[in-house]
């Protein structure tokens, strides 16, 4: 009598049940992991853009603005859109190539549904030639809040001195500012 190699239907069903159980446990964790990666990528991309703006102000010895531009080249409070860094010689928060203002860098728009804010109503961040923030009251927090995952919100705190700090996780209870306040979007 010949002996055949293979699996019985019961063995296949047991293996399939184990595989489906592992997937059911792992997929929610995978989703959380992917959200964390997306938030970290956006925060560190924005942090690099802020550093680029500050360094450009210092090296070009002129004002440099970071903001979302509308189709007329004006800064608007639409932080979910593409962000631009440009020299702003007349400090009007408007990109004007005719005045020899230079576009220094850009960052793509964030994922649809996520939120990015600078303070509550700020339209732009301007660095003076010294590397400090230009004007009174520009220090604030960039808040990045992923859709349906507010506990994973992160921020970048920008001080009047021009330095920018990425928020840190506080005792595994979500990211906080240095004051201990939670990062939140309005």
UniProtKB/TrEMBL annotation:
Keywords: Cell inner membrane, Cell membrane, Membrane, Methylation, Transmembrane, Transmembrane helix. Residues 45-162 form the General secretion pathway GspH domain. It is found in: Cell inner membrane. It holds the Pfam family N_methyl. Signal peptide: none annotated. SUPFAM superfamilies: Pili subunits (SSF54523). One of its GO terms (cellular component) is plasma membrane. GO terms for biological process: protein secretion by the type II secretion system. This is Type II secretion system protein H. It comes from Colwellia chukchiensis. The lineage of its organism: Bacteria, Pseudomonadati, Pseudomonadota, Gammaproteobacteria, Alteromonadales.
């Amino acid at each position: 009598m010949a002996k055949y190699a293979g699996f019985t239907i019961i063995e296949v069903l047991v293996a399939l049940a184990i595989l489906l159980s592992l997937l059911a446990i792992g997929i929610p964790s995978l989703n959380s992991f992917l959200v964390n990666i997306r938030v970290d990528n956006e925060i560190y991309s924005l942090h690099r853009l802020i550093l680029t703006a500050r360094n450009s102000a210092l090296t070009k010895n002129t004002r440099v603005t970071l903001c979302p531009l509308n189709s007329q080249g004006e800064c608007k409070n639409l932080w979910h859109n593409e962000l631009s860094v440009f020299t702003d010689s007349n400090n009007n928060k408007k990109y004007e190539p005719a005045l020899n203002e230079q576009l220094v860098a850009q960052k793509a728009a964030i994922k649809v549904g996520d939120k990015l804010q600078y303070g509550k109503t700020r339209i732009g961040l301007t660095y003076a030639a010294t590397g400090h923030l230009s004007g009174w009251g520009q220090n604030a927090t960039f808040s990045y809040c992923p859709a349906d995952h507010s506990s994973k919100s992160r921020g970048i705190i920008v001080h009047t001195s021009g330095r920018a700090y990425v928020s840190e996780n506080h005792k595994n209870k979500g990211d906080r500012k240095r004051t201990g306040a939670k990062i939140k979007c309005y």
